[in-house]
Write a structure and sequence with these properties.
This protein is α/β, with parallel strands linked by helices. The chain has eleven helices and ten strands. The longest helix has 17 residues.
């Protein structure tokens, strides 16, 4: 395993992002909004989408391969821009690449527990995240005494990945996912998958005034800013560049993300990742 440079003063190398698909762009666009001088390097493992159905040991191998791909292209920090990958692989990545700063995506359980007025919170996640000991621990630590409606939204990330986020099929699936939250009386709802913020307008429209919606994009961007600022490693580029890669079809990837709001101008190419 080669060694990679640690953060440097005024570090103009790009920030890396890894995800199973387009979901992590909800994090990347917030990082771009907060840190416009930073270059972004994004890899979507579309060949293995969705991560929500993959065994944890396989997730560790996949994400390590993606991290190595980003590091070989100069990433100074890597955002594991996927809730499921964070839950199962973040500790493995930190052990496998010592000295490399990794920032994960934590479900917003603490925020939900602090913001609820009625004591009932809803959380929409992939099946793997719902089943995870990691999420169970977060709930025990931060939402003890709260009623948690933890909904496994099978297929919801697939809808976002396909680009069909405004059609009747998407609305039917959203209504099914939100029904337990609505009938259970939750007044706050957390989006526990980075794909779901692209559905936030639809989710908020369906919930109306019954519940407020939260996701992890802003807290993660603030954490990235904090890590880089703490090391004096913020970029000072006047014209940063943004490169996106996918392990499947760049043309399809480009078509799907084209209408997504807030995604910076970028190039897209195929990622020839050497999987472990």
């Amino acid at each position: 395993m080669p060694s990679y440079a640690t953060l440097q003063a005024m570090d103009n190398r790009p920030i890396g992002f890894l995800d199973s698909g387009i979901g992590g762009l909800s994090i990347a666009r917030e990082v771009h909004r907060l840190l416009p001088a930073e270059s972004l390097l994004y890899v979507a493992d579309s060949a293995h989408f969705p991560y929500g159905d993959i065994e944890p040991i396989k997730l560790c191998d996949l994400t390590a391969s993606l991290a190595e791909y980003l590091l070989e292209r100069g990433a100074k920090l890597i955002v594991v821009a996927c809730n499921t990958a964070t839950v199962y692989a973040l500790a493995h990545l930190r052990a496998a690449f010592p000295g490399v700063p990794f920032v994960g995506v934590v479900p917003v359980v603490k925020t939900l527990a602090e913001r609820t007025r009625c004591g009932t919170i809803g959380l929409l996640s992939t099946p793997n995240t719902v089943r995870s000991a990691y999420l169970a621990d977060l709930i025990e630590r931060f939402a003890a005494g709260k009623r948690v409606i933890n909904v496994p939204c099978d297929g919801l990330a697939d809808v976002v990945e396909s680009g069909n986020i405004a059609g009747p099929d998407c609305e039917r699936l959203l209504r099914a996912c939100l029904e337990p939250v609505v009938s259970g009386g939750a007044d706050v709802v957390g989006l526990g998958c980075t794909h779901y913020p692209f559905l936030r307008p639809s989710i908020e429209a369906l919930l109306g005034e019954r519940a407020r919606v939260y996701d992890s994009s802003i807290p993660v961007a603030l954490r990235v800013q904090s890590v880089l600022r703490g090391a004096g490693a913020l970029s000072d580029l006047a014209a940063p560049s943004h490169q996106f890669f996918t392990t499947r079809d760049p043309e399809h990837f480009s078509r799907v993300i084209a209408p997504l709001p807030g995604v910076p101008a970028h190039t897209i190419a195929y990622a020839d990742v050497r999987y472990r």
